[in-house]
Design goal:
heterodimer, A: mainly alpha, 2 helices, about 55% helix, B: pyruvate-formate lyase- activating enzyme, about 40% helix, about 15% strand, binds cobalamin, binds iron/sulfur cluster, metal-binding (chain B), Radical SAM protein (chain B), iron (chain B)
Chain lengths: ~45, ~700
């Protein structure tokens, strides 16, 4: 669920392991619903 | 007979559409208190937006979008950029944006996040369409301006190039040519004053200046505001000022009350306003002025009168006015700070009005608007507390917010008084979670004490909007992570906010005393004449920069990164805080979550699949995607575009699922068709679709035919 309480620990992991490489796996965990994050515009 | 001099004051685009800014009311109210006639006031930012979806505006837009774009006068944007622009832009939907405006102005639907989020998406989608008539990608997130690099850098040549200005301002051309200029001509004005508060208004103001000069050759044309002052402050070669403002007679640098009165007086007398130190005159007056600016004694300023702004047009359900009873900052020591109308310190000199006149003003303002925002660098703790006590004593009914410093002073009891007196939320610069960095900044705070203060605020149900940054000179990655950790570890003690990145500006103490901060080789950005930001060498923070920017961006991205139209801590944020208190994020989450009562509610697709663009476009998109997420967009993903142009790469398995929502469908009915998914898996899918707003709840929305956004 996207409640703040359950999202927070996930985000904490994403940031705690902040090395760019480890971050990738944390990001993957965050998006384990199979749906990737939206595309940031590189204009 | 018309009272002379007849003046009109204008707010040019591009700025916040949710309320009116106050600087012009300040100078006008002051002039009136000195016996001058009231000026007319035009908020061209909000007027141009409304005109864009009027029948005439919408017809123009449709035609403009159907015509291939004229060559880029800066020769900067390539075909790939245009394809990206096309990718984010759907067909213009004027009925949709009108409906969005109605929702944003509706005191009920505004507070239902489903409605609110849809309205914001529609407004952003509309601005994306307008953007397609200017430079690709120029309007982002609705009312933010992404300028072509030469313009953003402050190249005088680019900002003087009429083709560049015209192109950037093209989305507003119909309003300006068909409405604004005729209105100014008909108005028979002696003086036209333009406010330029934000950098994003500068190119539009310069363009307007040219059109106004042509239409009204004899008028006295003057600009002022924090951005006009910044141009002066950061312009390397001050003689270039009127190369830029060549259509203008004068620019007011610094505060404007007495300068505006001098301009009114000299136009009335037929003389040149050459004695006020804040008035920079065009060289043709041969009265070059390099005097230091004068700061106004703010005691005794009249209560600003906001009645001349077009309140029925702003995209808000309530009136929200800005009020500035203090100027400068009583601390005035932070080494990164280079703020507003300052000259030789971090901010301008500290001045504050008396609590009694603040009470008089707020009593007056509260009759006009429910929300009063203290639009100041900072409020002094004892003053706010005394103000709050007097509000309670006098029984003024008002909601308010302010920027404050995180002082120890704020005990539970004192915060409680603020809240009872109508304080809804505060904005605070916590800056860093690391003591060494806080000391280098000279912030005068400690993380444990900051935690205590925000705990007291939160207990009192005052929302805390947190701002900080990483990358201060000599900050290591470990120190930067302490700031991120501080925010995440205390996630329940602040509502919205996030972390930016340190940028060096020339007025900051860091730039004046670089040795203290390990900073060397300070230099301007190549190509910039208005040198707002400086480059420098400092290996430690530089080494940590890439990691910090990704970590900060990732850590604060979902799901509340940009919940509001415009930025954090603008009016919408305060309205929501007022309604929902410090639990405000729950009010958002409630609608971004698959709920039990959703089973029998209809949902419909919120957007459409778009064709995968050329590989060159995907490659370009991958540049930022790779940096942010460490992976390119997988080749087999389908791209789904929301109405706000946000594109989400989806696995193919989502295609049949989303297909179900082409027509309004309940989750129960959809699940019956997806019999192969067990309840848990279906729940997860619904959660994804709802939290990312790939589908939206239907029945609560007004009856409009569902557009056929059928994926191919
Ligand atoms: C309070 C404040 C906010 C508040 C409220 C802002 C608002 N009302 O919209 C909040 C927190 C929302 C905010 C947000 C932002 N802000 Co702000 N904000 C300020 C602050 C601290 C005070 C502004 C103020 O109210 N001053 C009091 C009024 C009465 O003074 P004034 O506007 O300067 O007007 C006087 C003179 O300029 C002059 N004048 C003005 N117009 C004219 C016209 C004529 C014809 C004449 C003669 C004179 C004249 O006379 C007036 C009376 O003395 C200033 C810093 C500062 N001290 O100036 C930054 C400042 C304006 N903000 C700034 C920025 C960058 C932002 C954001 C873009 C930050 C972000 N990245 O999100 C956002 C944008 C929000 C938006 N509207 O879209 C910058 C703008 C710099 C620039 N050149 O672009 C400033 C200058 C801070 C800085 N970095 O130096 N901000
Ligand atoms: S950062 Fe804030 S507290 Fe520090 S000097 Fe600037 S305005 Fe004052």
């Amino acid at each position: 669920m996207t409640s703040t309480t359950t999202k927070a620990p996930l985000r904490k992991i994403a940031v705690r392991k902040a090395g760019t490489v480890r971050l990738t796996s944390a990001a993957a965990a965050l998006y384990s619903d199979g749906c990737l994050p939206p595309i940031p515009w590189p204009f | 007979m018309t009272a002379r001099p007849k003046a009109v004051l204008i707010y040019p685009p591009l700025t916040d559409p949710t309320s009116g800014y106050h600087s012009l009311s300040y100078i006008d109210s002051y002039a009136r208190s000195r016996g001058y006639p009231a000026a007319d006031m035009i908020d061209a930012n909000i007027e141009a937006f409304h005109h864009s979806f009027s029948p005439a505006g919408a017809a123009w837009l449709e035609e403009a979008l159907a015509t291939p774009p004229a060559p880029d006068p800066l020769a900067h944007y390539d075909d790939v950029t245009w394809q990206m622009e096309a990718l984010r832009t759907a067909e213009p939907d004027p009925a949709g944006v009108r409906e969005a405006v109605a929702v944003l102005q509706d005191p009920e639907r505004f507070y239902q996040y489903d409605h609110y989020a849809r309205a914001v998406e529609q407004v952003i989608g509309w601005m994306n369409c307008l953007s397609g008539t200017g430079f690709p990608g120029q309007f982002t997130n609705g009312f933010q301006l992404r300028m072509p690099p030469a313009v953003a850098l402050g190249s005088v040549a680019a900002l003087r190039d009429e083709a560049v200005l015209e192109r950037l301002a093209r989305p507003f051309q119909p309003y300006v040519e068909d409405v604004l200029i005729p209105q100014l001509v008909a108005g028979d004005y002696d003086i036209v004053g333009l406010n330029i508060t934000y950098q994003a208004q500068l190119p539009f103001a310069l363009w307007l200046g040219r059109l106004i000069r042509r239409a009204l050759p004899g008028v006295f044309l003057v600009a002022g505001g924090t951005e006009a002052s910044d141009v002066w402050k950061y312009l390397r070669d001050k003689t270039q000022m009127f190369a830029l403002f060549d259509s203008f007679d004068a620019v007011v640098v610094g505060e404007g009350e007495t300068a505006w009165v001098e301009i009114l007086e000299s136009v009335r007398a037929g003389t040149v306003p050459s004695s006020h130190p804040n008035i920079r005159l065009h060289p043709r007056f041969r009265a070059m002025n390099l005097l230091p600016v004068r700061y106004e004694p703010i005691r005794g300023l009249p209560t600003p009168d906001f009645s001349r702004l077009p309140w029925d047009k702003y995209l808000s359900p309530e009136r929200f006015v800005y009020y500035s009873p203090t100027r400068g900052c009583y601390w005035n020591r932070c080494t990164f700070c280079d703020y507003g109308l300052n000259t030789d310190g971090p901010t301008s000199p500290w001045r504050q009005d008396t609590v009694e006149s603040i009470i008089t003003d707020v009593t007056e303002l509260s009759k006009f608007a429910k929300f009063v925002y203290f639009s100041v660098d900072v409020l002094a703790p004892a003053t706010i507390l005394r103000f709050a006590e007097r509000v309670l004593e006098t029984g003024i009914d008002v909601r308010w917010g302010a920027e404050i410093r995180l002082e120890k002073y704020w005990s539970d009891e004192r915060c409680e008084i603020l809240r009872r007196a109508g304080c809804v939320a505060v904005s605070v610069g916590f800056e860093s979670g690391n003591q060494r960095i806080l000391d280098l900044i000279d912030k005068g705070t400690r993380p444990d004490q900051v935690r205590q203060t925000i705990t007291s605020m939160t207990k009192a149900d005052i929302g805390v909007q947190m701002m900080g940054f990483t990358g201060f000179p000599t900050e290591t990655a470990a120190e930067g992570r302490e700031s991120i950790d501080f925010l995440l570890d205390n996630r329940d003690l602040w509502t919205f906010g996030g972390l930016g990145q340190f940028m060096l500006t020339s007025g900051a103490i860091v730039a004046r005393e670089p040795d203290r901060f390990g900073v060397t080789n300070i230099r301007p950005l190549p190509g910039s004449d208005i040198q707002r930001v400086l480059l420098y060498d400092e290996p430690i923070s530089e080494g940590a920069r890439a990691e910090m920017s990704v970590a900060a961006a990732r850590g604060f991205e979902v799901p509340h990164a940009r919940p509001w139209l415009s930025s954090v801590d603008t009016p919408h944020s305060f309205f929501y805080h007022d309604r929902f208190g410090v639990r405000v994020r729950d009010a958002l989450d409630r609608d971004l979550t698959a709920r039990d009562d959703d089973q029998d509610r209809s949902f419909v697709l919120n957007g459409a699949f778009v064709d995968r663009p050329d590989e060159a476009v995907v490659d370009r998109l991958n540049t930022t995607y790779q940096i942010m997420y460490g992976t390119p967009i997988p080749a087999d993903r389908l791209l789904f575009r929301r109405p706000d142009g946000q594109i989400t790469p989806l696995p193919r398995s989502y295609l049949p699922i989303l297909h179900l929502f082409r027509q309004p469908t309940t989750l129960r009915a959809a699940h019956a068709r997806l019999w192969m998914l067990d309840a848990a898996a279906a729940g997860k899918v619904w959660q994804t679709l709802i939290s990312r707003r790939l589908v939206r709840r239907l029945p609560e929305f007004p009856d409009r035919p569902v557009p056929d956004e059928t994926p191919s």
